[in-house]
Write a structure and sequence with these properties.
The chain is of the alpha+beta class and about 160 residues long. It has three helices and five strands, in the order βααββαββ. Strands 1-2-3-5-4 form a five-stranded antiparallel sheet, covered by helices on one side.
Length: about 160
């Protein structure tokens, strides 16, 4: 699947109407990236087969932009993207829109969907084989959170530097 780049039709200044969550560093509430900070967008189908193309797309975007992330942090960003895209597909049965941008020295990735449910950090359970994607994001991201735009889009975002 080839990525589509450009405006994702999420206008600058879209009001955010939900609280953000996350413990790294405390659930920062923020609006979607301004269009001027967006470097690209990837529109995916609602199939788990899109996780690998989404990872390749972000890796290519980061490489082309010459982003100053260590290889370890690039790997972290790709793993977090994989988890968030998988969450959208598994929990919403729809395809996500992924946006990548930069705010200063931070890389920001946003994963949008239209599902009403809030993302939930599940309790740790050594016997569970799935359902810990947000725990992974919480552990690896410099900051992360979620919000809902006024038009009903929910987005989960993370930052790495």
């Amino acid at each position: 699947m080839a990525p589509n780049e450009g405006n994702t039709q999420i206008p600058d200044g879209m009001p955010v109407v939900a609280e953000a969550v996350g413990s790294a560093p405390g659930g920062v509430l923020r609006p979607p990236l301004p269009t001027s900070a967006v470097r690209g967008a990837f529109y995916a189908s609602g199939s788990l087969e899109v996780t690998e193309p989404a990872r390749r797309w972000l890796a290519t975007q980061l490489d082309l932009a010459g982003v100053a992330l260590s290889p370890h942090r690039v790997d972290d960003a790709l793993l977090m993207l994989d988890e968030l895209v998988t969450n959208v597909i598994v929990h919403t049965a729809s395809g996500p829109t992924v946006r990548y941008g930069e705010l200063g020295d931070r890389v920001v990735v946003e994963v949008f969907d239209r599902h009403w449910g809030a993302p939930t950090l599940r309790p740790l359970d050594p016997g569970r084989e799935s359902g810990l994607g947000l725990r992974l994001v919480d552990a690896l991201a410099d900051a992360w959170g979620w919000a809902r735009t006024e038009d009903g889009r929910k987005f989960v975002w993370f930052e790495v530097s």
